[in-house]
Amino acid sequence: MSILNDSALAIAKKIQNGELSAVELLEAALEHINTVDGRPGTLDDGDPTDEDRTKVHAFITLTQERAYQQAKAIDARVKAGERLGPLSGVPITVKDIFCVKDTPSTAASRILANFIAPYTATPVERLESAGAITLGKVNLDEFTYGSSTESSAFQPSTRNPWDTSRVPGGSSGGSTASVAAGEALLSLGTDTAGSIRQPAAFCGVVGLKPTYGRVSRYGLIAFGSSLDCPGPVARDVGDAALMLSVMSGADRRDSTAARVTVPDYLESLDRGVEGMRIGLSPDYMQITFPDPETGEFRKQSLPVEIREATLRAAEVLAKQGVEIVEGVPMPNMVYGIPAYFVISRVEAASNLHRFDGVKYGYRTESDFEDLREMYRKTRAEGFGLQPKLRILMGMYVSAAQYSEQYYQRALQVRSMIRSDFDAAFDPEGTYRLDALLTPTTPTTAFKMGDVYGDSVLMQYADQLTVPANHAGIPGISIPAGLDGEGLPIGVQLLAQDFKEEILFRAGYAFELGTADAAWRQVQPEVLKAGKGTSS
Amino acid sequence: MTEYEAIIGLETHIQLNTTTKIFCGCKADSWEDPPNTNICPVCTGLPGVLPVLNEAAVRKGALLAAAMHSEIRLTSYFDRKNYFYPDLPKGYQISQYDLALGRGGYMDLPMPDGGIRRVNIAKLHLEEDAGKTKYEKGVRYVDFNRCGVPLVEMVTGPDLRSADEAAQYLIRLRQLLRWLCVSEANMEKGHLRCDANVSIRPVGSTALNTKTEIKNVNSIEAVRTAINKEIERQVALVESGGRVRAWTLDWDDAHQRLTKMRSKETEADYRYFKEPDLLPIELTAEWRDEIVESLPELPLERRARFMEEYDLPEYDADILTSDRPISEYFERAVSAYGGDPKVVSNWIMNEILRMLNDLGIAANELILTPEHLAQVIKLVDNGTINNATGKAVLAKVQETGMAPGAIVAEEGLAQVSDDSALQAVIDRLLAANPAEVSSYRGGKEGLLSWFIGQVMRETRGKADPQLTRELLQEALKDSK
Fold first, then answer.
1. pTM of the entire structure?
2. What is the ipTM for the molecules in this complex?
């Protein structure tokens, strides 16, 4: 039995009707994981073997026992004739940046490798209360610091199911790869600069960064607290909408979780897009990055396949009644990455202070003379390269003598980026957009090792996604075709605060409009016949 | 020799008496609880947790700000103060920095010479407390119970001029905190903690010289002694040609001495930035006005009014406003009594305060109400009972809860002021003691008090002392 051909929505219905048992489904999922995933990431990495190079390696921890208990409980409740939640029996994975009670919650870092969380993150709790079965914790860049999942302390790091010589993107690479490879129907990721949308684009799945505050951050091990958003990864827009409905809403444990009513996103899906105004911005068709030699900003047009995929998506939507508005200016988006570099590092450095070897997690095993030496050794040994770079940068730009010049200035840039969106969405303004349509990423999935090590270049993978994090607005990446090498291309839709519904409606309309497209029939490499997939 | 004056500023940390901590639901007061028993994922800084603000802490902080004549900002922010220490589980303290709850403010301290010393408030903000560490046999232990207990940090300007003034400020602050019911303000229990910044300058100079900071002074007496010692040290140092350095000094209470903790020539960089995990504190003007209006008359205002309105001496006014219950007790008694407030003051200062002290309770906890007291004073005034009986009745009321009139009636305590009844007692007394009578008549007039005592014994204390004296004098003279 394959769970691949059904949506989470359909699966939950079948389980509720008794057509399908949660335990059977779980067993099928575990068997499939066993086939495609390979060995889970561990601290004692070693070089990848030839077999490793053909596997997905989405998982750090498989929580099989816990999943069995959940599945048995679901089946028992079905037998007892109970009415179950909307995700009953649906197997999901959770990015290992969320705390789940009694399971290792590692943040893909050596410093938390031994940390067993004593409580469960709010979004996970809500998914599980709706009946979801947590298969396990999936890999990510260490503390989410990256765009390829390669910086995880748990190796081998996740590989792209479409081409296992390539990265899945990141930092929610384990989440998107597990969904793309059919290991889970849904995954819970986080997006701080594009960490859901970019890997979703690379892996050919749907990924949504909700409005900041739409989903509680309680239990999410913080990176950039003012930017972090938990969000759904799914195979289609409908499942993403269902998952978001379940996770969203106010939380007495997170005062930044908004007290804004949660609509039934699923119900609004088929309201169509007639009359919707969706914009295209020339500023999103290029990337701007500092020349490594001169430091001057250089502009470079995006690959033609990515630009064309975006324009084709606009045409598909236009055919369904969307009014496409061209030439929407987003003049400040070019400063998105530099401002993000500063803001996220200041918050990250502060958020990492608690990992000091005193209370939990790793403490140096070598001798130390005093407290300072214990701190130094613990942090030097426990943190990988990315946390260290971010601490250095964060401490530098928040120092009293530089804070005005960097941090305060970055905050100003942030509000300028926000005002670009405010102008585009202003119902009284020139553009009066319901959404902006852009490419999700400047490239498709790159080869493992190609960009890793160049922290600045890696960061520019997020240039098209980070403005939404600065502005706090929601954004979705949906699959929109394949490039010449057969790699997924994603397009992004951005909307106003708490207008996720617009993104789902437009995304769903696009899915309907491309249902028969040839690229939709192509499966990821790891699922192709002869690759050992069970079906 | 040059004359110097001290320039002192006090940095106080005030533990608010909320039920729960400032950012989680743990019990705030851990006094005498075993280590690490009032803790949760939030206050111990586990990965992924978030703070949620306790509104009671904001209310109490705002009330204190209003009482300090501080402007309550309608929008204020929490900031992260970043530093490493084992008792600080997040590696940063959630505090307030540039846009704190309170802005400015002052307290007017009455001086012994009758003048007023205005002490300005430079900082008034909310923050969370850190835990405690202790070192035992080479192992450092951490207790997180205190983590997240709500504090107000309040810093004065360099406005105090002597150790006595600093002590006076703390006494008045402690009084105010209890008056407002925002803190237990017990220094020994760390509810009110104080660091003192001390510098000196030649009298007449307006310069602010390098200051030292004295930490760990946990009683008002310690503040006074430590500051005096530090002033002496600085004067001696400067007089001998030395220069005061910006040290942090630790007060060792056991040995009554200051020891150098560290040099503080450069300021630590705490890399403050706005706490992204909390929303700004947004207050409405109505909420603020309600707080300001709910502010009771403050102790120093009430003290001044008692002197003015009731014509009380400063000494009485000071004592009768030492806490809020006693001042309210006094006013209710005065109003029930209707006579001279000074009489009420005397009764309270002599009788009620002793009773409170013996029972270890506050005036509002007495069974003996201010109205009871007023009735007793009236009974004494109109001669129904004498002073001594009055005092005994007070104790009886407190003991039984019965009204004073009822006690007097039931126990037959009313004074014997009937001439004929008293005369009969006296006649019997004189007849039974001819020797004493003749001694008196022979000039030993000191025996009069013995005769009075005998009458009192005979009447079980109920005889009107004045009348007894008059009748006795008459009777002893008669037979001469």
1. 0.91
2. 0.95
